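Researcher: First entry.
Model:
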Amino acid sequence: MLETSLLCAFAFLAGFVDAIAGGGGLIQVPALFAFFPSAPPAILLGTNKLVAVTGTTLATLRYLWSVPVSWKQVVPAMTISGVAAMGGAKTVMLLNPGAARPILLVLLIAMVAYALVRPALGQSDGSTEKLPSALLYLTAALFGFYDGFFGPGAGSVLMFVLARFFGYGFLRAAATTKLLNLSSNFCSLLLFLATGNVLYLVALPMAACNVVGGFTGAHLAVRLGNRFIRWIFMIVCLALIAKLVADLYRGG
């Protein structure tokens, strides 16, 4: 009972943080691995996906009530993200997802450094009409594959890309990220479900708490706007960097 309560608390916090700036996997995935150290990685990542898809759904709906979305570009990007996520989920059953940590660490450090020297990043929406859709679709493919393969940090990286290269404000970037994240989570979850890699007794109560956290985080993001999201984004990125450095130091 205590174990389930603690996991539910982690799920609420993960949903809250992930809805604002990504990085919920930083909280939820290590918690699952800590409580079930002998379980295969695939079954814990599958459990995480079932939990995450519920919170992401409610967070996405909350964003859609208030934030405009470029559906003409986003719908194909969601499809690509979902297909790529299934490929990533299949790959995680064959390879160690920890191999992605050094690459993610370098990306996060570069993102934080850039955001520090560019305080205007993500503070307002720029024009994106002239950007080639192919760039967004390539981004969606890379994001989806990584999200299905490992997950933590995927949303934060995508938000940065949308703000830096597509001129999105952080609020619009968060809403678009949630849509792609919903697609990648759902499609990779299908593969985990089909292969029996989900702990339902653990996932269902965690999912209920993740929903509450996700909706609460998205609601605050909409109410408080770009500046608030930027601060949470920076905190999440720094926490991810610290976690990855610790994992690499321990050889985990």
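Researcher: Second entry.
Model:
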Amino acid sequence: MRSKRGIIALAVAFAATFVFVGTRPAQAMPPFAQAYGENCEVCHSAVPALNAYGRYVQRTGYSSLDAATIHRAIPLWIGENPTFDSQDAVFPHKIVAGNFALHAVGFIGRDWTFHAQQWITQANQSGGTDTLWLTYNNLFHRDGHLFIGKLQAPGPSPYNQWFELNGFAAPAITVGEHGYQIGGTRWGTKLSYTRDWLLAEAAYMGNNGDLNTATDFSNDTDKSLDWRLAYGRPDKPTEFGVFGTGGVLPISNGTIDRYNATSVYGEVDSEGVLPGLFAVYQTGHDPNPGPGLGAASSRAFSVDMYHPFFNQRVMLGLRQEYTDDGLGTIGHSTNADFEWLAIRSVGDRNATGLLANAEAVMAPGAGPDWKYQLWYVTTVGPLH
């Protein structure tokens, strides 16, 4: 009891020192940890960043887990993450406490899995739908997984589940009127095939709005075909591959931009004293990016080095990024990140975690953007 009070006191002291964070969505699955009685490092390099086995579980729609074991846990969990961002457009230098989400994750029977995240409040306002998918997993001798709903477009895991607060620049590059959504969460359907070392994915993706926009695939909506082909084994630390998108986007003068982009990436988990590495290089083409603009060929890259310490309770990271939209706008930035898993408790009654994050984002000609976050998650009931 005394040690637990000490950890809580340290967490409060950390929060008081660093304030709180400006954040992007992050995922962890406390019901899975509770059901198996395992700590987070089975699937995570440092929560929520996934290791090779965690990436395998993710791309199989969780069906690589044992359904009977997962059914032991109540599939609901909650998360609250106060944030601070010194350069936030709406709340600069202010704590934003209204970030409360309800999550659900698990199996329906043996062949169906699901994941939902609904923000109850988000940035002190009514929240939106972050994730909502259902997957059928009994295809191609259980190596095929058909997703439908609001789901992650084909792309590397760090684009959707990472410990750093700033989103990656390459997949969200803006070219004229077109903002790319590579690897992001959008409404659509995806077929994923995973066998041995092979990962092949293809998806038809629409908008990224809330539940009321789920069926909006009208002519004025950004629609794309996305894909990925990669090497990755659950028992090896290395993953690499190629992914891309090709879509249509109406622009303001009533014409269409038929865009495309292709990326290559590689990821190596940290092992022993060796740091982990994630790198991606992307090229894109927009023949009609906006009225009065000529065709644009864009390029971007990210290189991210990271390493966990103290039994994976602390993670340090350093990221370098570059973007060129092909229209004369060039971006260059560096992130330095720190994460501390202050509380990690897994038992039959619940699974609970408290994480603290700090980040400095540095760009030429501008002062550092300081971001902080305190993230608390817990399951809502005991095993049964």
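Model: Note on the second entry: The mean pLDDT is 91.
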